[in-house]
Design brief:
The chain is an alpha+beta fold and about 70 residues long. Helices cover about 20% and strands about 25% of the residues.
Length: about 70
Protein backbone atom coordinates (compact mmCIF):
# COMPACT_ATOMS: atom_id res chain seq x y z
CA UNK A 1 0.00 0.00 0.00
CA UNK A 2 1.16 3.52 -0.80
CA UNK A 3 0.51 6.35 1.66
CA UNK A 4 0.68 10.07 0.99
CA UNK A 5 0.75 12.84 3.57
CA UNK A 6 -0.21 16.44 2.87
CA UNK A 7 1.44 18.50 5.64
CA UNK A 8 -0.28 21.70 4.48
CA UNK A 9 -3.63 20.19 5.50
CA UNK A 10 -2.41 18.92 8.88
CA UNK A 11 -3.91 20.56 11.98
CA UNK A 12 -1.63 18.67 14.41
CA UNK A 13 -4.47 16.91 16.24
CA UNK A 14 -2.24 13.91 17.03
CA UNK A 15 -4.61 11.12 16.00
CA UNK A 16 -2.36 9.64 13.32
CA UNK A 17 0.61 9.35 15.64
CA UNK A 18 -1.59 7.82 18.34
CA UNK A 19 -3.04 5.27 15.91
CA UNK A 20 0.13 4.47 13.93
CA UNK A 21 3.21 5.64 15.88
CA UNK A 22 5.53 3.41 13.81
CA UNK A 23 4.56 5.36 10.68
CA UNK A 24 3.68 8.94 11.66
CA UNK A 25 5.56 11.61 13.57
CA UNK A 26 5.49 15.41 13.73
CA UNK A 27 7.79 18.29 12.90
CA UNK A 28 8.69 20.84 15.56
CA UNK A 29 5.77 22.88 14.20
CA UNK A 30 3.36 19.99 14.75
CA UNK A 31 2.91 18.99 11.11
CA UNK A 32 2.68 15.34 10.12
CA UNK A 33 5.67 13.52 8.64
CA UNK A 34 6.80 9.92 8.22
CA UNK A 35 8.99 8.46 10.96
CA UNK A 36 12.62 8.74 9.84
CA UNK A 37 11.70 10.47 6.55
CA UNK A 38 11.47 14.21 7.21
CA UNK A 39 11.25 15.19 3.53
CA UNK A 40 9.10 12.36 2.15
CA UNK A 41 5.45 12.87 1.28
CA UNK A 42 4.90 9.33 -0.07
CA UNK A 43 5.85 6.02 1.49
CA UNK A 44 5.12 2.34 0.95
CA UNK A 45 3.56 0.82 4.07
CA UNK A 46 4.46 -2.69 5.25
CA UNK A 47 1.49 -5.06 5.32
CA UNK A 48 1.52 -5.44 9.11
CA UNK A 49 1.00 -1.67 9.54
CA UNK A 50 -1.56 -1.07 6.79
CA UNK A 51 -4.64 -1.42 8.99
CA UNK A 52 -3.34 1.25 11.38
CA UNK A 53 -2.58 3.62 8.48
CA UNK A 54 -6.06 3.11 7.03
CA UNK A 55 -7.61 3.91 10.42
CA UNK A 56 -5.40 6.99 10.79
CA UNK A 57 -6.42 8.21 7.33
CA UNK A 58 -10.12 7.63 8.00
CA UNK A 59 -9.98 9.47 11.32
CA UNK A 60 -7.84 12.40 10.15
CA UNK A 61 -10.16 15.43 10.47
CA UNK A 62 -8.26 17.45 7.86
CA UNK A 63 -7.77 14.63 5.31
CA UNK A 64 -4.00 15.07 5.43
CA UNK A 65 -3.40 11.32 4.97
CA UNK A 66 -4.28 9.47 1.79
CA UNK A 67 -3.68 5.84 0.92
CA UNK A 68 -3.90 3.68 -2.16
CA UNK A 69 -3.80 -0.09 -2.33
CA UNK A 70 -1.33 -1.22 -4.94
Amino acid sequence: MKCEIIPERCIACGLCQTIAPEIFDYTDDGLVLFVGEKEATHEFIPSKQQDAVIQAAKRCPSHAILYQNS
